[in-house]
Amino acid sequence: LNNSHSDLVISAFFFFIALIAFAFSAMRGDNREFIYLGLFSLASAGNLLGESQALQLLIYAPLAKTYLAAISYFSIPIFIALILNYWLAVQSGKLMLRIAQMHMLYVVLCLVLTLFGAWHLAHFYPIFDMLFVITLVIMLWFCIRHFTVMNTEQRLVMGAFGLYAIFFLIDMIIAHGFVPWVNFPLAFGGLIFALILVVVSLRHYRQIQLALKELNVLLEQRVSERTAALQNYVLLEQQRANQLALINDFSLRLETLISRLQPSQSLQQAGNMICQELHKVFAPLQLRVSTFNEFADLSPNSVLNDKYRIEIDDLRLGKQTFITFELLDLSTETSEMRQVIEQFIFRAIDRLSVTLSGIKHREDLHIMSFEDALTGLKNRRYFDDALQRELQLAERYQQSLSLLICDIDNFKQFNDRFGHDAGDMALRIVASLMLDHFRETDIPCRYGGEEFVVLMPAAHLQDALDRANTLLEKIAAKKIVYQDKELGTLTISVGISSWDGRGDIPHQLLQNADKALYRAKQSGRNRVEVASP
Questions:
Q1: What share of the chain in percent tops pLDDT 70?
Q2: How far, in Å, are 90, 157, 165, 338 from residue 97 at the CA level?
Q3: What confidence tens digit (pLDDT) does each residue in 150-197 have?
Q4: In this predicted structure, what is the pLDDT of residue 1?
Q5: What is the CA radius of gyration of the chain?
Q6: Where on the phi/psi map is residue 320: left (φ > 0), alpha (ψ -120 to 50), or beta?
Q7: CATH architecture of the domain with residue range 380-530
Q8: Looking at domain 2-213, does it have CATH number 2.40.160?
Q9: Are strands 528-530 and 492-499 parallel, antiparallel or unpaired?
């Protein structure tokens, strides 16, 4: 009974620690540290109360005491693992969380099986002790392994846990009869662990509060400095109000010009508009706008004799000067006003440069959207538009139209044998031969992979056939050289579909050429086949 009295006193201490922990958790944003400590203290107190004979004299509820002791005892490793996970989050990863989840599952399983009468509660103690010993050893091993990289607070927590773990292991050895029975003070080990956690947590909390206090002082100082700076800025702005009023008209005119520039379809169109309209932005000042070659002596980022430059950001060439201008006469202005005007000019140059660069990028992207990056030929998107356009023109004017589909023979084997880089080189060579071979009015395109198409407006079947046969000979005679190594030659197969300008135009021209190409492939490759009329 004396031991029961001491257990009640220690339980009261645990409840007091839990009360303090929960109170601090309510005061903090990140309150996991104190919540886990409070739950651990409650579990330790519940275990002691459940096993206390003195409590039995006060409250007669033996079954409730048994369940209180068991569930509290089984829950202790859950909160130990959560506490260690909080303090060692970086080092432990998800190990401690997995341990906590495993013991939580054990508690739930114990409750379900005992409440439904499937198993007696006493049978769960040996299994739990074995499981707890394993997890204690794992946690101790982890703490010892990472002890050298821990900070002071983490080492104190790990030392307290190590002491508590030793108490637990000794208590289990005694409880299972491995050594003669003695009244071992396990509760004191838990109390020491909890007290050390309280001290470390409060110390950690105090450090955070001091850091927050210093941060608040620093923020107040920064706010005061910023307020003073803003007040000085307001005074300066008030002094410059009259000067800036003269610039407002310039700004409005500049915005109007920029809004008119935005819809420009090309950089040249935008440049012509600037040359015509920029002098209106700076009226009544006199301005001369010119192309860059009139100021060839102007070096990058320089301003000489009131000459300024508007640059564009080219995707390939970088920054390029596009337009230059100069103010012809500022002698009547004061130096202060001249400085204000010059500042506005630099802002205007930046705005115009950004606007012109956007127009240039839009123009470049429009061009690139119709061009195959590897070969330089037009791509399939361009071909689809061109085919519809040429079909309409041929039908309207009753002109002949021919279409060739070319496919490199055995290109996959070439790629597999020599590599994709060599295959890309071969595609570029074939594309170059096609560009040189066909007429300026013809439209060679890369259709996809190793397949090419050629639109030949106003070309009869015989013209297309002659061109195709000659192209076969040129490609077959061209040796493919990659990295100074000769890789042999390639051949192509060609399918031709043609309309002579009479009757209804076959809108399946592409499909007919594709069928002819298929026959060329089936007939042995390196040949030309014509679609059936």
A1: 78
A2: 12, 17, 18, 69
A3: 667 667 767 776 776 777 777 777 766 676 766 656 666 666 766 776
A4: 45
A5: 43
A6: beta
A7: 2-Layer Sandwich (3.30)
A8: no
A9: parallel
